[in-house]
Amino acid sequence: MRKYIIAGNWKMFTLRDEAAALAHSLVPLVAGIENADVLLCPPFTGLDRMEKVLEGTGIFLGAQNMYHEDEGAYTGEISPAMLKDLGVSHVIVGHSERRQYFNESGSFLNLKVKAAVEAGLIPILCVGETLEERESGATESVIAGQLEDGLEGVEIARGEDLVLAYEPIWAIGTGKTASPEQAQEVHAFIRAKLTQAFGADLAGTIRIQYGGSVKPDNAAELMGQPDIDGALVGGASLNAESFAAIVRSV
Ligand code: PEP
User: Fold this and answer.
1) Most informative mutation of 5, 6, 9, 97 for ligand 1 (most atoms within 8 A of CB)
2) Residues forming the active site
3) Ligand 1 centroid to 71 CA: how many Å?
4) What is the position in ligand 1's atom list of the atom closest to the CA of 126?
5) Separation of 94 CA from ligand 1 center, angstroms?
6) What angle do CA 64, 31, 95 make, to 5 degrees?
7) Residues having CB within 6 Å of any atom of ligand 1
8) pLDDT tens digits, residue range 190-239?
9) Ligand 1 center–CA 54 separation, angstroms
10) Relative to the CA of 73, which of 14, 24, 80, 132 has its CA 20 to 30 Å away?
11) Do the Cβ atoms of 60 and 38 come closer than 8 Å?
């Protein structure tokens, strides 16, 4: 039985006070939820304050990105050890905005996934197709390629050490959501690829989130699908009531 995992990706929003205030309002609204891990991913600048706000709440702290080296002359980058030092447990890797705007390639993302696992961080590897790719029938081949690149040589001891996020690019921030059937179809495909890569036992315990315009009114139906184990939420996670309603829908 996989426990749901619901993450808020705050992207490049919130100054430190705003991040702390948002987290403060959210904490009581999700208190007592036992069938879902809740994770907040503020910008790097909010992590230090957020670690203190979330202490003792059971809510996990995540980062939106990282570099794969431990330390060195990599101006502007943040290492796995630096994230761990801030109380971070999870890190989003390969969000479509990073693939698209920062040209992060599959092999580069693979280095990040491996470095995260080695450091004891849980990577959330994002995959997803564009509208053009979906309409030309290429969804499965695109997702397969992203999984093969991103997971090449990755070794995990437990399924809980890795999270996947299926985020169709055409559904991110657009208000268009994949239907529960469309999402489930891709999630089942991802589960099959994970089974090939890690074997059925591990693949059965790896959680696969759906992301793309998840809102309080569509969350329950999406997460009611057999292979949808949670949500990666962008826009709606910036409102405490909306995000809490999504968490409570499981
Ligand atoms: C995201 O940022 O990963 C995302 C899915 O955004 P939104 O929920 O706003 O579509």
Assistant:
1) 9
2) 95, 167
3) 30
4) 3
5) 13
6) 15
7) 9, 11, 95, 167, 172-173, 211-214, 232-236
8) 999 999 999 999 999 999 999 999 999 999 999 999 999 999 999 999 99
9) 22
10) 14
11) yes
CATH number for region 4-248 = 3.20.20.70
Intervals of the chain under pLDDT 70? none
pLDDT at 1: 83
What is the C-alpha separation between 9 and 75, in angstroms, rounded? 24
Identify which of 120, 98, 118, 119 has the alpha carbon closest to the alpha carbon of residue 109.
Answer: 98
| 178 within 8 A of 160, measured Cβ to Cβ | no
Six-digit token string for 85? 């030092």
Q: Where are the alpha helices (DSSP H) in 125-179?
A: 131-135, 139-151
Residues 6+ apart with CB under 8 A from 190: 127, 143, 147, 164, 166, 208, 227
Domain boundaries, the chain: 4-248
